Amino acid sequence: MAEPQPVSGLTDEVALSCCSDMDPSTNNFLLQQTMLRIKDPKKSLDFYTRVLGMTLLQKLDFPSMKFSLYFLAYEDKNDIPKERKERVAWTFSRKVTLELMHNWGTEDDETQSYHNGNSDPRGFGHIGIAVPDVHGACKRFEDIFEELGVKFVKKPDDGKMKGLAFIQDPDGYWIEILHPNCVTAIV
Hints:
Layout: H1 12-17, E1 33-38, H2 41-51, E2 55-62, E3 67-73, H3 84-91, E4 97-103, E5 126-130, H4 134-143, H5 145-148, E6 151-154, E7 165-168, E8 174-178, H6 180-186
Parallel strand pairs: 1-4, 5-8
Antiparallel strand pairs: 2-3, 3-4, 6-7, 7-8
């Protein structure tokens, strides 16, 4: 009977060999958004703006399909254009916005919830927020825990990956709180 082989990830060389050079026709592509479905926009908008300091850039309603989209990012609210068409174009030109999708009526449905991807069947994992001080951000979350409603999945000094934390939003999605320089120490 053959002995089982140890499981490991791809080597750097194999990972690189799987990647293609950028096609020149994709030169101006950018990762513009990631979307999370939310149950209650009042709770989610409060969390992402008050707890994480994001700015609501744009709200779009689709009455015939009974849903709304909320686009948030780390932008100065004074830079957001006032005129609607200009604001829509500006919002969709930002790098990495968070799109929250609310299907109308879910906030009143006690049986409604969304899968966060971190339990079986696993899929989506988390979004990441870079902060200047992970411990300081987490202390703020702890100091006003009840007021802000922050639930920790992992605190910065827990587990093997020291220096980063995971919190949950009102729908249970995980948010990694990291400092770019601290990640270098982990890897």
